[in-house]
């Protein structure tokens, strides 16, 4: 925690909230995240690459069409799972063998950092 954050600031409160969710167990790690969007990358869609997905996210955000959903991201030996923080409902599961690319992107826009997962279903020829 940097010393330049006032003790009564919203940023400090957010850090406290996230730190209560983030822990590492023997075989599971979990992190509080803000889920933005899920895109299918396909030849039928306008999104063919990760870079196009990032451009589409930026364009959607500029039009006010992006809102965050607080989620809990859990990583274990079976894969990556997303849970709704409020309801604890299991929303998405990505088996580890399906994850073809995992990339963190730092940016200057509203979303300072993005975690991108590119997954390939066993029925797809390419992600």
Describe what you observe in this structure.
It is a single chain. By secondary structure, this protein is of the alpha+beta class. The protein contains two helices and seven strands. The strands form two sheets. It has a five-stranded antiparallel β-sheet. A hairpin with a 6-residue loop joins strand 6 and strand 7.
Annotation keywords:
single chain, 127 residues, alpha+beta, five-stranded antiparallel sheet, two-stranded antiparallel sheet, globular
Q: What is the β-strand count?
A: 7
Main pleated-sheet profile: 5 strands, antiparallel
> What portion of residues belong to β-strands?
35-45%
The span between the termini is: 39 Å
Rounded to the nearest angstrom, the radius of gyration is 16 Å
Oligomeric state of the chains?
A: single chain
Structural class: alpha+beta
Overall pLDDT level: 78
Write the layout of secondary structure elements.
Elements lengths: L9 H12 L1 E2 L3 E8 L14 H13 L6 E8 L2 E6 L5 E6 L3 E8 L6 E7 L8
Antiparallel strand pairs: 1-2, 2-3, 3-4, 4-5, 6-7
Quick overview of this protein structure:
With 127 residues, this protein is of the alpha+beta class.
């Amino acid at each position: 925690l940097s010393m330049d954050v006032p003790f009564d600031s919203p940023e400090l409160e957010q850090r406290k909230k996230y730190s209560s969710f983030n822990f590492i167990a023997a075989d599971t790690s979990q992190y509080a995240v803000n889920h933005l969007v899920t895109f299918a990358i396909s030849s039928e869609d306008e999104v063919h690459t990760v870079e196009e997905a990032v451009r589409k996210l930026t364009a959607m955000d500029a039009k006010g069409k992006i809102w965050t959903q607080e989620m809990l991201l859990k990583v274990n030996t079976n894969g990556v799972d997303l849970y709704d923080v409020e309801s604890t409902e299991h929303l998405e599961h990505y088996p580890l063998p399906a994850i073809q690319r995992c990339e963190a992107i730092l940016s200057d826009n509203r979303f300072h950092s993005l975690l991108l997962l590119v997954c390939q279903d066993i029925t797809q020829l390419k992600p």
